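Instructor's aside before we start: the two examples that follow are unrelated to each other. I chose them only because their records fit on one page, so don't look for a connection. First example below.
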Amino acid sequence: MLRFINNHPEILILIIIAVIFLLQLYMYFQKAKQLNGVPDVKSYLASHPKCKTGHGICCYVCGSKSISLYKIDRLGKRTNLHLCKHCNTKLYQTDAGIL
């Protein structure tokens, strides 16, 4: 097997490219899974109108106003996932635009 790869290094390069492609594809679907079922901010506030406060938005589970931002890049598009810092609930997502 090693003799074959030594005689045909282009095969090794193709294998490496294929592995990198498959890893990127896997990571894309993992990131997409993180956003599955998470509403946008407008839908979140429509579902939880009491979460809109005079100082921003709070968590519908624990009421915390401490919300963290997790940036997710997918195919040249950035999406922000907003999480409650206290109970780690996925609250809503916002579109951050094109990279």
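Example two begins here.
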Amino acid sequence: MSYQRIDRISEQVRREVDRIIRDRLSDPRIRGTFSVTRAEVTRDLRYAKIYVSILEEADRAPMMAALKKAGRFDLIGTGPDCLAAPETGKAPASRPGGAPRRKTPAKRKPPRRRS
């Protein structure tokens, strides 16, 4: 994959994240003048690091807290050329074979008694 393609995808992700913050987030702490300055997408297109610039000093801490609380958004199907959404949160813990984690512990059979 060429770097030009990664750059185009990163720019598209930057625009989409900016649109999502402005249009879909309804947290009252998100206000004032801000800009999504850059998005860095990994080569496998799974993760993105988003850079935000906030102009007013008083709004920085509350707005960053609101953005961190918002977490990640699912971008699949929202853009014309997006096939998969980059994740913007922490990398998930990988498990062997890609098996999902169990929510409840597995039940064990009692050991057989020898007579």
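The longest strand covers residues 34-41.
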